[in-house]
């Protein structure tokens, strides 16, 4: 996640988080490579490979939300921000975080309800689709945690002094 927060227990958690993301990416890559080899090299497809790769990919995407936000890697448009002073920019960041928390809370709640309601199973691996839907509230929860962390940072930053002419 963020390079500025690398001390103590938080650094350990960030390291574990990054290791989980890397492990998911490696697992997906290996699974797809082996599945392609079996299908085209040996003529014996691995039936569950598509479903398992899809499940792992959904988890990778939603778990990556917080890391992307911490590195400011999400899509953005700097239409207004170059014209704002430090105080206005800070207020805009706080407002965006609060709005993001509201949207993520709604998405998490809805996904949680959907996770509890689903009775559909993935046919080849026999797991409930709830495992796929559960990635949404977990990933959004991590993202909301990062937003709260960043809001605490923004609250600690002293407001710039107003210079009167």
From TrEMBL:
<comment type="function">
    <text>Part of the tripartite ATP-independent periplasmic (TRAP) transport system.</text>
</comment>
<dbReference type="InterPro" id="IPR007387">
    <property type="entry name" value="TRAP_DctQ"/>
</dbReference>
<dbReference type="Pfam" id="PF04290">
    <property type="entry name" value="DctQ"/>
</dbReference>
<keyword id="KW-1003">Cell membrane</keyword>
<comment type="subunit">
    <text>The complex comprises the extracytoplasmic solute receptor protein and the two transmembrane proteins.</text>
</comment>
<keyword id="KW-0472">Membrane</keyword>
<comment type="similarity">
    <text>Belongs to the TRAP transporter small permease family.</text>
</comment>
<protein>
    <recommendedName>
        <fullName>TRAP transporter small permease protein</fullName>
    </recommendedName>
</protein>
<keyword id="KW-0997">Cell inner membrane</keyword>
<feature type="transmembrane region" description="Helical">
    <location>
        <begin position="125"/>
        <end position="149"/>
    </location>
</feature>
<feature type="transmembrane region" description="Helical">
    <location>
        <begin position="16"/>
        <end position="40"/>
    </location>
</feature>
<feature type="transmembrane region" description="Helical">
    <location>
        <begin position="94"/>
        <end position="113"/>
    </location>
</feature>
<keyword id="KW-0813">Transport</keyword>
<keyword id="KW-0812">Transmembrane</keyword>
<dbReference type="InterPro" id="IPR055348">
    <property type="entry name" value="DctQ"/>
</dbReference>
<keyword id="KW-1133">Transmembrane helix</keyword>
<feature type="transmembrane region" description="Helical">
    <location>
        <begin position="52"/>
        <end position="74"/>
    </location>
</feature>
<feature type="domain" description="Tripartite ATP-independent periplasmic transporters DctQ component">
    <location>
        <begin position="28"/>
        <end position="156"/>
    </location>
</feature>
């Amino acid at each position: 996640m963020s390079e500025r927060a690398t001390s103590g227990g938080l650094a350990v958690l960030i390291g574990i988080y990054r290791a989980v993301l890397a492990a998911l990416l490696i697992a997906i890559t290996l699974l797809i490579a082996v599945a392609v080899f079996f299908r085209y090299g040996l003529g014996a497809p691995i039936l569950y490979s598509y479903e398992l790769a899809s499940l792992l990919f959904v988890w990778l995407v939603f778990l990556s939300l917080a890391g992307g936000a911490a590195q400011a890697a999400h899509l953005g448009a700097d239409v207004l921000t170059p014209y704002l002073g430090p105080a206005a920019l800070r207020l805009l960041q706080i407002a965006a975080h609060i709005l993001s928390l509201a949207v993520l809370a709604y998405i998490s709640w809805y996904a949680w309800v959907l996770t509890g309601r689903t009775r559909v199973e993935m046919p080849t691996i026999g797991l409930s689709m709830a495992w796929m839907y559960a990635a949404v509230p977990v990933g959004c929860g991590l993202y909301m945690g990062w937003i709260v962390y960043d809001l605490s940072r923004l609250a600690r930053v002293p407001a710039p002094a107003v210079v009167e002419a």
